[in-house]
Fold this sequence. Notes:
The protein has helices at residues 21-24, 30-43, 103-119, 136-146, 162-168, 184-189, 197-207; strands at 2-6, 12-18, 123-126, 153-157, 174-178, 192-196. With 209 residues, it is an alpha/beta fold. The chain has two domains: 2-45 and 100-207, Ribosomal Protein L4, Chain: A (3-Layer(aba) Sandwich), CATH 3.40.1370; 47-96, no CATH class. The protein has a six-stranded mixed sheet with strand order 2-1-3-6-4-5. Forms part of the polypeptide exit tunnel.
Amino acid sequence: MEVAVLNINGKETGRKVTLSDAVFGIEPNNHAVYLDVKQYLANQRQGTHKSKERNEVAGSTRKIKKQKGTGTARAGSVKSPVFVGGGRIFGPRPKDYTQKLNKNVKRLARKSALTLKAKEQSIVVLEDFSFEQPKTKDFVNVLKALGLDAKKSLFVLGDSNNNVYLSSRNLKASEVVTTSELNTYKILNANNVVLLEGALEGIESNLSK
């Protein structure tokens, strides 16, 4: 699959690159995509939820009232869950939500996601660029030139570029990652995936194994 290489002004450079069929032209595996997205979202959970149970609530252990003769239910402690301020029954406890997934399944899922984007013609190949200093306005100008200012976009760099990353950090609809940070969820979550020329070799070498 051949794609024209654009510059940051949105114009064609006259060059074309061939996207590998082994990465961008496979038969998508929807179940692998589902497993990889589920694992990514599960691993984002901190699992620090916690509520105090009866033995953790501060309060007197004195028996509230005598056992019999009051005409009401017996009660032994103000820390009982039936009272306001008492402990919570079966409340949430810290939990590790981390899931594991086979590397081959992850690789298949990412290739499937890139293939889906390629079929939708949602992949843009951009020549490598950088900024002299971090400036959000410069990154917004690139988005406007590519017609992506009103869409969610994912920029994939070959190597980390601090100026480009910092220029995009304030924009909620755009994200900049390197090839090592690329995952299925981020690919599918974006309307358009912008691949810099320097990232193509890394993506294809990582996923064509």
